[in-house]
Known about the structure:
Order of helices and strands: EEEHEE
Largest sheet: 3 strands, parallel
Oligomer: single chain
Mean pLDDT: 76
Organism: Actinidia chinensis var. chinensis
Strand order of the largest sheet: 2-4-5
Helix content: under 10%
Number of domains: 1
Number of strands: 5
Strand content: 15-25%
Protein name: Leucine-rich repeat-containing protein
Distance between the termini: 24 Å
Low-confidence stretches: 62-68
Amino acid sequence: HLSHNKMSGVIPFGLAHIPRLTYLYLDHNQFTGRIPDAFYKHPFLKEMYIEGNAFRPGVKPVGIHKVLEVSDPEFQF
């Protein structure tokens, strides 16, 4: 749970390499940019909460949606 921590910048790429990561709560911070492709390839990640951040309008997740369920419909394919 990293929600409501006033974190900013791009989503840290290293988070996608946490073994057995199942749920990732990044909501209500100030993240920008794109969602790293590694999150879509993570074998255990089921949900990643990203709403309430400062993504630019029109920014879409990168990669092929396989196991990641994004809670903000604005960022879904």
